[in-house]
Amino acid sequence: MSDRSKKIFLTICIVVPFLIYCVYYYSHMIKNAPYKFTEFQSIVFQYGPGDSLVNKFNSKTGDYEYVNSHDSIVKMHLHLNKDELLYLHRKAADLGFWDFPSVEMGDTTIKHNGMRPPRYLIEFNYQRKSKKVLYDASFDGDPRLKDANEQMIKEITKVLADAEGRQNN
Question: Which of 24, 45, 131, 164 is most deeply packed, by most CB within 10 A?
Fold first, then answer.
């Protein structure tokens, strides 16, 4: 055999099966991804001081209830459009929300300015699976995880505020 035919033979025997395996493996992984936006159903976001999660939003029902600066409860129907939901889904994927622990609690006995630290419940619901994270602001674990949680909370509150502003105008 000549050198050229040996190289062709090696390419066919090694590279081609490897490429076929890669296509098979990754197409199977993408097809079975647990959190796909096509299966997205709703997002639930609740927060409040300590155990009382008095501020609530559910995208499935559109119910939004929060305590304003005058300590009165405001109830409204707030609809998030598909682009906003897609943005939150992608932001959760970027921040690694699917890999967050389910409970991230710190020392809940510590009080700041006489109040307990805020607690947040974030839940993404899909057809086959859901991810729920309970995060306490006093969480003293990995700083990167804490930053990712705070970024996710900031993004959700920003989207809710934008939707509320759009609805009021």
Answer: 45
Same domain, 61 and 5: no
CA-nearest of 105, 128, 109 to 38 is: 128
Q: Average pLDDT in the 11-36 region?
A: 79
Residue 8 structural domain: 1-32
pLDDT digits (tens, 9 = 90+) for 71-128: 888 899 999 999 999 999 999 988 988 888 999 887 666 666 667 788 999 999 998 8
Do 18 and 45 belong to one domain?
no
Residues 6+ apart with CB under 8 A from 101: 133, 145
133 backbone dihedrals φ, ψ, rounded to 5°:
-130, 130
Identify whether residues 141 and 83 lie together within a single domain. yes
Among residues 86, 93, 91, which one has the least CA distance to residue 33?
93
For residue 137, the domain's CATH number is 3.30.1560.10
